[in-house]
Structure formats: C-alpha cells, structure tokens
Amino acid sequence: MPHFSVDLHSTPTRHRQQTKMAFFVCFVLSLIISCATACDRCVHQSKAAYFNKASALSSGACGYGSLAVGFDSGLLAAAIPSLYKDGAGCGACFQIRCKNANLCTKGGTRVIVTDLNHSNKTDFVLSSRAFTAMARQGMSQDILRQGIVDVDYKRVPCDYKDRNLAVRVEESSRKPNYLAVKVLYQGGQTEIVAMDVAQVGSSNWNYMSRNYGAVWDTSRVPEGALQFRLVVTSGYDGKWIWAKSVLPADWRNGLIYDSGVQISDIAQEGCSPCDDGSW
C-alpha cells in the first residue's frame, strides 16, 4: 500500500481534528494519483506531434493563458489524460527526445504541460518551439516536415530558479462571495491535491476545489488578508505546504501574488528500479 505522510508541524494543535479530516481526503487522493503516476521517473516510449499555432497551447486546458509563453521560453506541451491527471499534471515538466539520431540530439529538451492532448496517436503535442528544440543544429525544418516522431520521455523536476510559488487572482473572482486563483511556478516534481484558504492569523480554514487545470476556487471567502495551505504529493509521498501571507486585504483581480514559499520536492515512487535510457 502506498505511504502518505503529512507535515503536521505547520498546523496548529487545536485544529488537529480538522487536519485529520483533510488528511483522509488527501490520503484517498494520493492513492488514486500514485496509481496513475507510478514510475514517472522511468523512460517511456511514444510519439509526439506539434501545434502549428503557438496560441493553441497558450489557451490550453490548464488555464495559464498568455502566461504559458513565459514558461521555459515557450517549450510547452499538451499531454494525454494519464499525464494531465484532471489538471493535477498542469505545470509538470518532462524531458523528451526524438529517437531519430540523424535528426535529433541525444539529450532532447524539457517541456512543461500546459494543455490536455486528446489524441490517441501521441502522448504529447508540443509547441513548434519545443518540437524543434529536439533537433540537431540546422535540422529544425527537417524535423518539422516529419510532423510526428517517435520519442522517449520521462518526468523531471521543474526548476524556476529563485521564483516562488505564486497565485494569480482570476477575473471571475468577486468579493466577498467568490475567489478563484491560478497556481503558478510550481517547482519540483509534485502535484497539488488539496488547497485551503483562511484569513491571516486565523485557523478557520475553508477548503477550495479545483475548478479546472491549475485554477482553484471557493465560494467561502474569508475577510481580510489571506493565507493558503496546500497538500502536494507525487508517487507515494506528500506533505502540507503553508503559505502564511499571500493575498492582501485589498487583493485585486488579474494580479499575481508571491506566496513566499518554494516547492522543490522530488517524487518518491514505490516502484522497482528502471532503465533511465542513458539520461
């Protein structure tokens, strides 16, 4: 049975009962997710195609919009449902390389999931920039002419350097009855499986729901400045992340707010050793 651990040190003792309930919900979620993500670190084989228009991925199912273009210089990907994970896979990073040694480099390129790929022919549909990033120097047009290529890929940690986890208040938010936020710059190799919000200094947490992709919302909006706590998990391990002061009392729609925390955890997977494909 997968193991799940939660860091309770960040949760006040007098609210342990509430935490236990959240723990149970997140434990069930972790069981489901761990089955879908087993051995992400292993190398998988499939095919990849590319979008002709860059706008196709920037308006993808994760909800990043035009912000997606700034992720790793536009090295973006739409992933199949087993990798998209009902939105929990949004922001996940993969190393991907095409297997045609005449066209492509041995190392390939890293891409970020920003959309859902509905195709049953390829595991990924890449932005044209990501697709050509797999090619040897001078071979960009040649790989584009292929249209679809055989690839190896594996999950890798995301690294946003010194950039903290952030939330963007969505335009649909309406004080005091509705708050929707988009989670950005999720580092490491994790999924967010739960998110709560409370007034800064309060222990009265209200749960949030995943609206779609990277967007979480609630109709129970606390007054004043807001803090968040999240459960992040990957493979069979997980923990609370507590962002103690994120939104000011006068938060505004369309603005991005720094959480002050970074996620850098790496997946702990309960699977046998696997071939890394010489990566």
Helix proportion: 10-25%
Q: Spell out the helices and strands N to C.
A: HEHEHEEEHHEEEEEEEEE
Instruction: Please outline the major beta sheet.
Output: 8 strands, antiparallel
Q: Taking Cα atoms only, what radius of gyration do you get, to the nearest Å? A: 19 Å
Number of strands: 14
Count of alpha/pi helices: 5
Order of strands in the sheet with most strands = 13-12-9-10-11-8-7-14
Average pLDDT over all residues: 84
User: How much strand?
Assistant: 25-35%
Compute the separation of the termini in Å: 30 Å
Low-pLDDT runs of 5+ residues are 1-20, 23-38
The assigned structural class equals alpha+beta
Shape: elongated
